[in-house]
């Protein structure tokens, strides 16, 4: 038979694929009609493939698979009647074992054609080599599987956040490599010489209840693994004399074979993975090797998370101590403070109850003063004489004392109370004040428990906080007189503040969260026309026209918790006054409510003076305009006069009247009408500018304001030869502004630019929207502004014009108007390159 039968099995991606390819070649080379090839890996179900030269009937295929899966001794050749496809005619059946005589790994079954000789058998060397090749591929496949499981497990362990997730990932990986009935992890608690058994299957499968428990380490198989640091296998627990305690526990669950693989980091064993099976000799060295390989990342992950859990536990303990310390320093209520300490002790130590006892100075008895499970009215009835009970012994010895089982401890003073409450173990730590014992703090559990040294240290730290709280209570009684004196001083200071508040010329209103007046000083009462003892809603003091804005302003201060300011016109006793309001939220007062202080300042006089200055500047500008307007009126008036004189001359001609000349009268009259209206527009524009614009704002078309400004400038003779170019963005969004004030700003900036150019260059006026804001830009080609003057141009009364030609208020007033509209004026200038003034307003 051809020797290339080993090629498919050696190059196949899997054992099953190689078996199928090899069987096909054997069937073709042997002359068989069909056949089956079985591989039996150790401790694994057999892998069987079947096939033939043509399509094999399903019944025949099943028969061949069943036949090959059943081991046979030696080579056997018989005649059989196979099911299906042969019409009951017998055929030769040949069965050949694969592998070495001492290590049979599978079997080959060949079925001949009916009426023909039996198929050609494989030679013994070929069958041995074929078996070895199949076994070798199987081992390589298992190694690849182990590497894949290890890689996947490492990735899952790195992504897992809890030990339950870690255990679930480990179970998935172990189940792919080893067959078992149960798997668990034992974690060592060296401080208590015991270990915790984690039923990993119970954690991995939610439907199975957890069966975690803590057991003593001595006399167990785990103790041997911890001591030796190597894996341990027991093929039959019934015949193995080692570790009777573990043997009984496994046998009770019906297990016969167990295997333990140590979990170690840094050379120290801290636990083990335990496999159990109901079949004897269920595990071999290969199984231990596979579990040991994936146990290494499991050990690292458990240790990392145990370290993380330890860090969190330490953090919880630190937080508990901080909370206890904060309770001691934050409150003088000793009962409340002690209860906080007891609750923190119960939470951080994981106990069921806590209590504090103090020494009665009259009787020297230890008296219960606080407990988490005994009613307050019953606590004082629990008394211990000096040295009685666990707590009394702790106070007497000046060190922690504990009882792992109070039900069987003769030192316990009230065993019936322990049994009624269900408490089984307790730990007591004395309370110290220097070297003197003043009481004890005790914690209780409902199970038999040995408190560790760390738990004792933690309770000692909490006992120190409880002792400090009791010391504070004593100091509080001594300092009570000092508090009375201090209170008297504070009353004097309060009266002083009230005097200052009442004499302050600024109105002060204290408001609560519902905007009700809590307090008002005399200046505030005068400002809003009310009595100093006025209480109730602030709304009652405000007229309808301004109430909404003021109340919204104060509510905003409450909501944002920030100081704000507002100017508002308020009618007080029939007079319109302008007030500057400032609202400042304050911290909650003694009654626990939230309040705000509203400062009211009457700025009516200052605002009137400001408006007068603004009007003065406008009148000054109007004076300059008047000179130009007067010159501009001369031309149309001269035209009117000439036309009138011509009409008079024609009427004086005697006898010269003809019908055609009446047409001249109509033309001259139309010209007179047009020029008269032109004079009216010029004077109307002048009067509109001179009039006080007031402070009312409306929706304004910026482009229309710019065009009116250009028109006013065109009527001035001193600007008649100047070139003005406008680049206005179409469809510009309107702005909320005072039209007269905005026109004053534009006229002032344009006039300054034209005067600076002295008849040379072009003034470009542009409008546009940039980043949600409306911009009006005035760009001239004048000499520019020196750097040393650039920072002062908006200062009042600063001017570079000759005396008598400027007041120095134009730019200052323009800036004030734009700022009041919520905008700004930006300036860019270089000497010799002109200047750009940009008015930026919100849309």
Write the layout of secondary structure elements.
Blueprint: H1 6-11, H2 15-30, E1 34-39, E2 47-52, H3 58-69, E3 76-80, E4 91-100, E5 103-111, H4 124-159, H5 163-177, E6 182-189, E7 194-199, H6 200-204, E8 213-216, H7 221-228, E9 232-234, H8 244-252, E10 257-265, E11 268-277, H9 285-330, H10 334-349, E12 353-359, E13 366-371, H11 376-379, E14 383-384, H12 389-397, E15 401-403, H13 415-421, E16 425-433, E17 436-445, H14 453-503, E18 507-512, E19 516-520, H15 522-528, E20 536-537, H16 544-560, E21 564-572, E22 575-586, E23 595-602, H17 604-652, H18 662-690, E24 698-700, H19 702-714, E25 723-728, E26 735-737, H20 739-757, E27 762-770, E28 773-779, H21 787-790, H22 810-820, E29 824-829, E30 835-842
Explain what the structure shows.
There is one protein chain. The chain is of the alpha+beta class. The chain is built from 22 helices and 30 strands. It has a six-stranded antiparallel beta sheet with strand order 8-7-6-11-10-9, sandwiched between helices. The protein has a six-stranded antiparallel beta sheet with strand order 14-13-12-17-16-15, with helices on both faces. The chain starts with 5 loop residues before the first helix and ends with a strand.
């Amino acid at each position: 038979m051809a020797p290339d039968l080993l090629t498919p099995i050696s190059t196949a991606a899997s054992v099953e694929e190689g078996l199928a390819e090899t069987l096909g070649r054997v069937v073709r080379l042997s002359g068989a009609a069909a056949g089956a090839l079985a591989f039996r890996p150790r401790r694994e179900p057999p892998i069987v493939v079947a096939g033939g030269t043509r399509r094999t009937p399903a019944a025949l295929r099943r028969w061949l698979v069943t036949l090959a899966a059943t081991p046979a001794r030696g080579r056997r050749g018989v005649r059989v009647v196979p099911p299906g496809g042969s019409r009951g005619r017998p055929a030769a059946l040949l069965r050949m074992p694969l592998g070495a005589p001492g290590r049979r790994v599978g079997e080959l079954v060949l079925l001949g054609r009916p009426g023909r000789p039996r198929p050609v058998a494989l030679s013994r060397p070929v069958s041995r080599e074929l078996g070895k090749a199949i076994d070798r591929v199987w081992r390589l496949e298992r190694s690849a599987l182990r590497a894949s499981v290890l890689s996947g497990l490492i990735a899952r362990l790195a992504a897992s956040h809890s030990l339950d997730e870690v255990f679930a990932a480990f179970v998935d990986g172990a189940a792919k490599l080893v067959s078992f009935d149960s798997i668990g992890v034992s974690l060592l608690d060296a401080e208590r010489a015991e270990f915790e058994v984690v039923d990993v299957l119970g954690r991995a499968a939610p439907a199975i209840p957890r069966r975690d428990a803590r057991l003593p380490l001595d006399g167990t198989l785990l103790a041997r693994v911890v001591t030796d640091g190597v894996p341990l296998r027991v093929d039959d627990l019934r015949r193995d004399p080692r570790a009777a305690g573990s043997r009984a526990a496994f046998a009770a669950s019906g297990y016969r074979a167990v295997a333990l693989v140590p979990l170690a980091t840094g050379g120290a064993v801290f636990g083990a993975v335990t496999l159990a099976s109901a079949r004897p000799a269920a595990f071999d060295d290969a199984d231990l090797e596979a579990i040991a390989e994936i146990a290494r990342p499991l050990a690292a992950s458990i240790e990392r998370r145990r370290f993380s859990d330890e860090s969190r536990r330490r953090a919880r303990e630190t937080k508990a101590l901080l909370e206890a310390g904060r309770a001691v320093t934050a409150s003088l209520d000793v009962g409340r403070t002690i209860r906080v300490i007891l609750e923190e002790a119960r939470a951080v130590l994981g106990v069921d109850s806590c209590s504090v006892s103090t020494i009665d100075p009259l009787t020297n008895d230890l008296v219960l003063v606080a407990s988490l499970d005994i009613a307050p009215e019953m606590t004082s009835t629990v008394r211990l004489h000096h040295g009685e009970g666990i707590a009394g012994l702790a106070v007497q010895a000046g060190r922690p004392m504990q009882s792992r089982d109070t039900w069987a401890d003769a030192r316990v003073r009230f065993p019936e109370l322990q049994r009624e409450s269900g408490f089984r173990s307790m730990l007591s730590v004395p309370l110290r004040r220097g070297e003197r014992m003043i009481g004890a703090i005790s914690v209780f559990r409902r199970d038999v428990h040995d408190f560790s040294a760390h738990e004792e240290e933690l309770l000692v730290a909490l006992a120190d906080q409880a002792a400090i709280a009791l010391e504070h209570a004593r100091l509080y009684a001594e300092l009570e007189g000092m508090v009375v004196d201090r209170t008297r001083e504070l009353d004097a200071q309060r009266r002083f503040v009230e005097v200052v508040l009442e004499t302050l010329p600024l109105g002060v209103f204290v408001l609560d969260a519902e905007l009700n007046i809590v307090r008002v000083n005399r200046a505030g009462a005068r400002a809003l026309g009310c009595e100093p003892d006025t209480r109730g809603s602030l709304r009652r003091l405000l007229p309808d026209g301004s109430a909404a804005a003021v109340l919204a302003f104060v509510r905003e201060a409450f909501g944002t918790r920030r100081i704000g300011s507002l100017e508002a016109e308020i009618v007080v006793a029939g007079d319109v006054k302008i007030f500057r309001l400032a609202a400042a939220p304050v911290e909650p007062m003694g009654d626990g409510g939230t309040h705000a202080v509203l400062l009211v300042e009457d700025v009516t006089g200052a605002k009137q003076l400001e408006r007068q200055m603004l009007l003065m500047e406008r009148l000054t500008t109007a004076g300059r305009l008047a000179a130009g307007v007067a010159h501009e009126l001369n031309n149309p008036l001269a035209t009117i006069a000439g036309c009138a004189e011509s009409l008079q001359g024609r009427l004086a001609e005697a006898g010269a009247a003809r019908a055609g000349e009446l047409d001249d009268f109509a033309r001259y009259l139309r010209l007179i009408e047009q020029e008269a209206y032109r004079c009216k527009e010029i004077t109307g524009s002048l009067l509109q500018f001179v009039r006080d614009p007031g402070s009312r704002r409306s929706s304004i078309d910026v482009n229309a304001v710019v065009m009116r400004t250009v028109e006013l400038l065109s009527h001035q003779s001193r600007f008649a030869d100047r070139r003005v170019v406008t680049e206005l963005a179409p469809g510009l969004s309107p702005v909320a502004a005072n039209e007269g004030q905005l026109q004053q700003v534009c006229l002032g900036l344009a006039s300054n630019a034209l005067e600076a150019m002295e008849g040379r260059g072009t003034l470009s006026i542009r409008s546009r929207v940039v980043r949600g804001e409306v911009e009006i830009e005035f760009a001239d080609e004048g000499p520019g502004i020196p750097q040393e003057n650039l920072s002062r141009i908006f200062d009042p009364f600063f001017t570079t014009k000759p005396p008598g030609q400027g007041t120095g208020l134009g730019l200052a007033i323009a800036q004030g108007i734009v700022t009041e509209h919520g905008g700004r004026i930006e300036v860019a200038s270089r000497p010799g390159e002109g200047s750009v003034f940009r008015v930026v307003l919100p849309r």
